[in-house]
Amino acid sequence: MKVAFVTDKFIIDPLGIAWLSSYLKEGGHEVSLHKPNSGNVPIDADMLCYSITTGKHTYYRDVNLALKAKNPGFISVFGGPHVTFFPEFAKEPGVDVAVRGEGFDAIVEIANAVEKGDDYRSILNVVGDKRITAVRASKDKSTLLLPDRELIYSDPENRDNPIKNVMASFYCPYNCKFCFNPAYKKLYGLLRSEIRPVNAVAEEIDQLRYYPLELIFFNDDIFPVYDSEWLGEFCDYYSKVQVPFHIQLRVEYISDAVISRLREVGLHGVTFAIESGNAKIRKSIGKSFPNERSTEAAELLHKYGVKLRTENMIGVPGESWETAMETLAVNTDCNPTIGWASLFQPYPGTELGDKCVQEGLFDGDLDSISESFFDTYRLKVPEAKKFEKLQKLFSLMVKYPRLQFLLPLLVRLPFRYKRLYSTIKKRLYKQLYKVAYNETTAL
Question: What residues have CB less than 8 Å from 77, skipping those under 6 apart?
Fold first, then answer.
């Protein structure tokens, strides 16, 4: 049975696809990975699989339709966040079957059914044009196979990328109002994140040594420093690895004890989200901490020579130009290597997205949501165009605060600043990921 995953060009390892491939191969199926913009998607595959997010769903729907026009014989399988939260996508033309939630077992069962000519519509987690089956229990993450690195590194460009990605845990223990995480945990009845055993993470990292490797970026929403026993075991293991790593944290977990211990074993960088510099707005989206907590956390990271990326959202409901400037000010005080900012997207199904629809700030049209939250702002507010330009200029202004007096003029000029944004972002990310850790500089 030939199964092909179709995905865009990527820099960040698509670990979801890699895990699904491992299970398919264990089930005896042949798996390949193809990028539609490279023109080498095999239209003779038995199954073509797509993992889609909201905003990219129409793009992959159209890719699939174009492939079916050439060869209608394959079965198309769609999964990922968009299908999970909007299962009606299964009614789109060209979609044969969709999988909501975890697909580890479901995709293998679908492949088996297709190979045998059996009906796959009753398989758990499956969505058809007229039926939605139940979701099976969440898979025990301590039992996961290793992700299929051979598949995702089949392109030399990805294989030779010195930054590799690993996940130590799944799901976020928090319930921010702009995020799908609360709905996902409700779907599965989950109350907390699921942390992988250190020995499983270690086995995966050992696997990465067969490829070019200079930095490991842990993709966890929150790296599990909140489990002290796990953290101690991880540090004991990682002290022998000698590969720098980057993690994502909430400011509430950034303490001298945690950062000093992680720095000793190779911590190179931390990302934390401020979201908004206005405390009232920040609380309205599900995060309650004073601005001082952000600046204190930043000072601690600077103390230990740890690089910092801050994350923010421009244009959350209730945002004004004045509150956006508060966000810029707090980020400037934190002095990160890169002050990262996105444009708020009103995803229906999230608490804030539904609120935007109810208040008439967004019409609820899923197909109008941008492919990227760095592109187009969708709320119907007077400052919309200014917010779009501020997002493009944000990193520059945080890095060079002496330029901030120009902002009122720059956001009124007839430029979108996309090229400038791309140039500045590339330059700052090179600084963020520049590896400076070795035995002599470790604290």
Answer: 47, 48, 49, 50, 96, 97, 98, 99, 107, 110
Q: Do 334 and 429 belong together in one domain?
A: yes
Last residue of a domain, one of 102, 127, 152: 127
CA distances, 292 to each of 78, 100, 315, 334 (Å):
44, 41, 22, 10
Helix %, strand %, coil % of the chain (to 5): 45, 15, 40
Give just the sign of the alpha carbon dihedral 211, 212, 217, 223.
positive
Residue 185 pLDDT greater than 80, yes or no: yes
Spatial CA neighbour of 225 closest among 200, 264, 261 = 261
Same domain? For 110 and 179 the reply is no
Residues facing 32 on adjacent strands: 4
Output the domain CATH number for residue 52: 3.40.50.280
DSSP string, 174-241: S--TTSSHHHHHHHHT--S-EEPPHHHHHHHHHHHTTS--SEEEE--SS-STT-HHHHHHHHHHHTTT
Please tell me the least confidently modeled range out of 1-15, 29-43, 184-198, 227-241.
29-43
* Domain boundaries, position 102: 2-127
Beta carbons of 394 and 341 less than 8 angstroms apart: yes
Q: Are residues 250 and 319 in the same domain?
A: yes
What pLDDT is attached to residue 443?
27
Dump pLDDT digits (tens) for 24-64. 999 999 999 998 765 556 567 899 999 999 999 999 999 99
At residue 69, the pLDDT reads 87
Neighbours of 271 (CB within 10 A): 20
Provide the domain count of the chain. 2
Residues 341 and 411 in one domain: yes
183 and 91 within one domain: no
List, for residues 268-313, the tens digit of each pLDDT value. 999 999 999 999 999 999 998 999 999 999 999 999 999 999 999 9
